[in-house]
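Figure 2 data, in text form.
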Amino acid sequence: MKVPHRWDKRVAAVLGASAVAASCLAATGGTAFAAGAREASSGPSVTLTLWQNYGTEANATATTNLVKAFEKLHPNIKINVVAQPASNYFSLLQAAAISHTGPDLAVMWTGLFTLQYKSYLQNLKPWVPAQDLARMEGLRWTADGLNPANGSYVIPLEDQFYIGFYNKALFKKAKVTSVPRTWSQLFSDCAKFKAAGVTCLYYGSGSQSLGAEFYPWYDLSYMMIGAFSLPQWEGLFNGKIPWTSPKVVSQLAKWHQLYADGYTNKDVITAISSLQNFEKGNVAMLIKGNWDTAILQSSMKGNLGTFVPPFSNTPVHGVVQYPGDGYSMTTYSQHKAQAAQFLQFLTTPEAARIVAASGLIPDVRGVSTGNTLSQEMLDFAAKTHFAKYPMLDNVVQPDVVTAGSKVLPQLLAGQVTPEKGAAELQQAWKQLPTSERGSSWATYKVGG
């Protein structure tokens, strides 16, 4: 998913003014949505622009297919899909918002990212009917105060997972009979894979090309699941649990030990094409997002399995299941009625089936995935009763995420100590304005 860019407080001031004006327009234009939406389907031809930052992920395929289906239903509305680089996507969005030259619709990450960038995002409460919004899961992570009654800024594309993938054939080769559920089991299994000439875990940049190095927040999410309950996670946000906590440092130390013991690839800092290396059959386990499921299934077929990363001293008890991103309407769009129609379309069973056909898990209630591996992921919470956690990088401050994205790969490779890495995360937190620390996620506000 992610690599955020530091929010420029001067940009926030400029965008804040335009957001106020947009809110006034929404108060009048939004109430006429129903009539405007009907006219949008039969009125003059309109071209919308949609920005996405999905790279080669299945999300990009889903976006293309959703647009095609929508255009077929609404022949007078055309949507130009523009693929933007993931590494500086939000910087481009911010710059375009200031000059009002950006898209009508844009991919947006949920949680604190939504709240951080909401100055140029349209609150959808007056634009998408409540009964349609009610079909979507996880809207609390797209709303002011994390309360969907306040109105959503994003229509989620899918129900996402940070998840582990494993190669069943290599498990059989190394005589590993089940996936690990604790740190001790993981180290024991990794020793067996190493003895069999197999890399236990592979780290490297992936399909979304978020940066030159691998994205460490998949792993850190599970390290913090192993250390803290979900209610305690807000302590990482508000400072009640410092990043230098012994529990945090201990988890980071165990993570680095995987590298030190030779259980990962040696080139974790510079490695690329992580999916391709896993597909070659030389790697037992990979920690990624579920949006790579379709790519891996097409090549590995029955040898592909899923597991919950076991970064826990006791059997792992939580899974990252969360509506991590979706589509937003910009405040400066000149075609809000038509853009809102596309967002409304995303709440329909038809759109959900398109998402499922792309190898993703629909976020629309009552629509099944139809994919056995996706169902395995859903069963971790539904049948194994694991607690559902959000993506950690969506619920800690983006400046902390930026710091972690830089230092954590270095920590895994032993270039900095666990204590130093934790201290850099804590320093990034200390430098935040008071309003961005807050008492809870619901109180998060940019600036201060």
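Caption note: The chain is about 45% helix and 10% strand.
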